[in-house]
Amino acid sequence: MRHINDLSDLTMEEFRELYKLTSNIIDRPEGYTEACRGKVLGSLFYEPSTRTNLSFSTAMMRLGGSVVGFSNPNSSSTAKGETLKDTITMVSNYADIIVMRNPNEGAAKAASLFSEVPVINAGDGGHLHPTQTLTDMTTILRLRGSADNMKIGICGDLKYGRTVHSLIHFLANYENVQFYLIAPRELAIPEYLRQFMNEHKMKFYEVSGLEPVIPMLDVLYMTRIQRERFADIDVYESLRGIYCLTAAKLRDAKKDLLIMHPLPRVDEIAQDVDDDPRAVYFDQARFGMYARMALLLTLSKQPRIHMPKNIPGRPNLRCTNPKCITRKETYLPMETHRTREGERCIYCDQLVEYRRMRKFNMDYEY
Amino acid sequence: MRHINDLSDLTMEEFRELYKLTSNIIDRPEGYTEACRGKVLGSLFYEPSTRTNLSFSTAMMRLGGSVVGFSNPNSSSTAKGETLKDTITMVSNYADIIVMRNPNEGAAKAASLFSEVPVINAGDGGHLHPTQTLTDMTTILRLRGSADNMKIGICGDLKYGRTVHSLIHFLANYENVQFYLIAPRELAIPEYLRQFMNEHKMKFYEVSGLEPVIPMLDVLYMTRIQRERFADIDVYESLRGIYCLTAAKLRDAKKDLLIMHPLPRVDEIAQDVDDDPRAVYFDQARFGMYARMALLLTLSKQPRIHMPKNIPGRPNLRCTNPKCITRKETYLPMETHRTREGERCIYCDQLVEYRRMRKFNMDYEY
Amino acid sequence: MRHINDLSDLTMEEFRELYKLTSNIIDRPEGYTEACRGKVLGSLFYEPSTRTNLSFSTAMMRLGGSVVGFSNPNSSSTAKGETLKDTITMVSNYADIIVMRNPNEGAAKAASLFSEVPVINAGDGGHLHPTQTLTDMTTILRLRGSADNMKIGICGDLKYGRTVHSLIHFLANYENVQFYLIAPRELAIPEYLRQFMNEHKMKFYEVSGLEPVIPMLDVLYMTRIQRERFADIDVYESLRGIYCLTAAKLRDAKKDLLIMHPLPRVDEIAQDVDDDPRAVYFDQARFGMYARMALLLTLSKQPRIHMPKNIPGRPNLRCTNPKCITRKETYLPMETHRTREGERCIYCDQLVEYRRMRKFNMDYEY
């Protein structure tokens, strides 16, 4: 592995190594306080995200390293009309490793094309957020010992929740995982994930009620219904707060249930659940910091690589996704990967369209 | 001591220990450059405050520690509707000690209920700002040797000036301190402080003129009339600039007078005073940094403590103060301390009112 | 040298020492990772500038030092009406060295009057930006071995481009440098620089076309036409993009040409140039970081000096430049240096005017 755009960039072998390192750090953090001494993390947050930002910064500092960067776009050179490509090239001249959060889908993938140092995707719009899944898996493995043979309930926004999609994908690597997908029709799991689970022989049940399934679960993963993801605010208002886990609803739950949440929560978990020993969502945050320490330590050992800056693509292709980074950074080389539905953008994974070439398209090279 | 919400959280014994440590750091800072190596300070500034923010950050760095956090609310998770309780629980998972500035009164007290690590109040609205008083006392003790037997003039906004109130409270611990309270009627000292001084047999004189009293003083503490504290801007405009200390007015002042100011100043001290050896307000800022080093070093040695997250309060109580943190964070357990005037909110110290319980009040628990 | 307001604050002797140190750091950075351990850089950015900000912060951290400060004015005490003088006095109480970017011309010079620690000018409006020139010279010397006997083309905004003016000034220290000044009439080099070059017997040719001169050049320095510098946006629109260096235009260029740019670029250099080995503008950014390391290391060794805070000036003088720091910070002592055209402001180098003294002018002292 060099960059972490998606968790699929790790082989299971590499993931196991990473988890082993994470466990060692949790068991004796004092052994790693100088592990990244002299290394600099470039932390580029094009949209605010206290949690992820603090988690990465703290992780680097607990390794003895330093952090530079910005936490909002206004204090970035983009204001002067600089391309992402140039910003990344510049920062990779200063830093030994880069973490980026960006509102455009595929931004981290784009950054990795030009960076001389490893790039970690800390969230690219509603697309990917691999270190959240790393956090979730670390929590499950650390507290359950294994992710095999478990019944996991996932509740809330299964349609837009990127952490949910990513978790389901990753759990395909484990044996006999059964899913209870708890959501209203409007927020049901996307069709492509149903196909994915069927192809991988993963058992899943789609239900709309939370309470009935709780007693069966080994893990209950609650999610926030995010205003940011809704085009229509009324739809959001009609759906927010439809699920609220309370102490009362946990009466018949298993004694060793793990109640997880990526945080921040709004009202999907009542505060009277917080003191229940099965509520591990705050521990989850700490495990996430340790997992990021392991990731930073591993990636920061890689040598600097000079990258070609001008990459030929297929200018007659165009991504159909208005939020795709290629719409904003028009010089990006268009490439695709084939899927059943057709060719998909390598950046945001949405379908592409062909267009007749015109002179002005050539300008994209400039 | 565990948290520092108010300076009253310290016993005089603890304060003397702290001052002794501060003095040692001032005398040989090089002995402390690794004292907090590996420790992380969580710096949560919900409103900008360069001075306090830089002072704490520099203090931590001069101890060899690191700093993470934010310096304005926009880059915080609160934007996503997260409660203070959850933000603090998260940050206390990452950091070894927390410093918080918040516009709501009682915010730091609220934070200390949930934090697994020590919380230092760096200002909660117009309520408390203990490290400013620590700065003031360090300056007086360091430059005068003692705070006993002194005549101190306090000039400017005695009504809203929280640093003034806090300083008066703390000086009750010393012998024979005489106060000259210099303010226009509109900004006179609050009645409860008059009572406090009478109860503690502290001599004080209220005057409206600055010049006449200057010759008598051992310490002159000037304050800024803060626009932020005024509801009516006209009242502010009519009062700003009524006091302006100039070199000329110091002609008959004592040779060993200490001229202090919490800073920033606007025009209450003319610049021709700056080079007077008795003007110590800039040294005061440096002493403040050393006092914060001592505080951080002392608190950071405490073990992490798991705190219950769901605390039963008295839902039939309500704070009458619209700026109280309990108005914004409605899940906070209401409790009071008794005073002559009645029961006061444990967060912001304002009076509380009783209300008839209705179903929706129960929601406060959720 | 104590402060770096302009590169002219360095003697050639000092500059050679600095370049020697820079070279040593480039050759073996591992030898300097603890060189500034325990030192604190105060980084005061009154306007955003990712590049310069990151470069200085990274430089300090790679020396083992720490950084405190702010990257935008909103999180600064100036919001509370504090003078630059007080802010600098405060920060110089906390930090061992100060770097400042400020939109007002002469701001760094003003800061250096009051700071107890060295101040580095990281850009004061359109006036000076010495560490950019340091970056440019380091790049030329490192890649060419010498700046003597070279033909350098400077293209784009020669009227407002402060980095261009500064570079021309500094190259007066070298033998047989020939300039090709490539700009449209509206952005031609200022008259005073023509005089400067004539006085110093520096050969220069003013042309409007880029392509014809390329084959002659040893160095081609491209610049961005900056929107910020134009009062009239239409003029900006008519001029932006008139020069665009492409791979095609480099066909007849020398094999060892150096293509430089201060960055960020917009469209003055096409992306198909980026992979040309002669394109060194991204390496330039890295050299800049190393030059700043050398500068920080050198300056941070100086002892703290107490500065008088109240400096008498000539209140009957007034700078004619509306962007001059003396217009905003009216207490600043006015002084001038004589030039052929008349007396110039020591802060922004613009002409001054005499005025009849009135009572209210005296207020400037307060």
UniProtKB/TrEMBL annotation, chains A, B, C:
State which pathway it belongs to.
Pyrimidine metabolism; UMP biosynthesis via de novo pathway; (S)-dihydroorotate from bicarbonate: step 2/3
Q: Would you kindly state one Gene Ontology biological process term found in this protein's UniProt entry?
A: 'de novo' pyrimidine nucleobase biosynthetic process
Q: Which InterPro entries match?
A: Asp/Orn_carbamoyltranf_P-bd, Asp/Orn_carbamoylTrfase, Asp/Orn_carbamoylTrfase_sf, Asp_carbamoyltransf, Asp_carbamoyltransf_Asp/Orn-bd, Asp_carbamoyltrfase_reg_C, Asp_carbatrfase_reg_C_sf
Positions with a binding annotation for carbamoyl phosphate: R51, T52, R101, H129, Q132, L263, P264
Single GO MF descriptor: aspartate carbamoyltransferase activity
Reaction catalysis annotation: carbamoyl phosphate + L-aspartate = N-carbamoyl-L-aspartate + phosphate + H(+)
Matches recorded under Pfam families: OTCace (PF00185), OTCace_N (PF02729), PyrI_C (PF02748)
Q: Keywords assigned by UniProt?
A: Pyrimidine biosynthesis, Transferase
- In this chain, L-aspartate is annotated as bound at K80, R162, R224
Q: Which residues form the Aspartate/ornithine carbamoyltransferase Asp/Orn-binding domain?
A: 149-298
Query: Could you tell me which residue ranges the Aspartate/ornithine carbamoyltransferase carbamoyl-P binding domain spans?
Result: 2-141
Q: What general EC class does the enzyme of this chain belong to?
A: transferase
What is the superkingdom listed in this entry's lineage?
Bacteria
Specify the Aspartate carbamoyltransferase regulatory subunit C-terminal domain's residue ranges.
317-354
Assembly notes: Heterododecamer (2C3:3R2) of six catalytic PyrB chains organized as two trimers (C3), and six regulatory PyrI chains organized as three dimers (R2).
* Sequence similarity: Belongs to the aspartate/ornithine carbamoyltransferase superfamily. ATCase family.
Q: What does this protein do?
A: Catalyzes the condensation of carbamoyl phosphate and aspartate to form carbamoyl aspartate and inorganic phosphate, the committed step in the de novo pyrimidine nucleotide biosynthesis pathway.
The name this protein carries in UniProt is Aspartate carbamoyltransferase
